[in-house]
Amino acid sequence: MKELKNTAEFTDTVQNAAGPVLVTKNGREAFVALSMSGYEALCAEAARAKLYQAIDRAEADIAAGRVTDAREVSAGLRAKYGL
Questions:
Q1: What's 29's DSSP letter?
Q2: Do 63 and 69 touch, CB atoms closer than 8 A?
Q3: What is the DSSP letter of 35?
Q4: Closest listed residue to residue 19, CA positions, set 44, 48, 49, 41
Q5: pLDDT along the chain (83 residues), means of 10
Q6: What residues have CB less than 8 Å from 33, skipping those under 6 apart?
Q7: What angle do CA 25, 39, 35 make, to 5 degrees?
């Protein structure tokens, strides 16, 4: 953690690293620093994984017959709320 006192140097280290930079304190893992582009890539990958999980669930619902026609749902909502 001593190196963190020189924030400009630490920033350069993180930005030039090929991946996350693991920071330790007293020989134990304290936190991970990641460049902005690395963080954005990580967020995009997480969003992509979440989307694929939703698609997998939807395909499983379709295969199991757990579907409802959108027109039926819309008509039911209109009737329920007097629209």
A1: E
A2: no
A3: -
A4: 41
A5: 79 93 92 96 98 98 95 95 93
A6: 10, 14, 20, 21, 23
A7: 60
State how far the Cα of 49 lies from the Cα of 63, in Å rounded to an integer: 21
Between CA 53 and CA 62, with CA 58 as vertex, the angle to 5 degrees is 150
What's the token pair of residue 6?
């020189």
Q: Can you tell me which residue has the tokens 């979440």?
A: 50
The whole-number pLDDT of residue 5 equals 81
Nearest-angstrom CA–CA distance, 56 and 77: 27
Tokens for 53?
Answer: 């999980």
Calpha distance 43→61 (Å, rounded):
27
Distance of CA 28 to the CA centre of its chain: 27
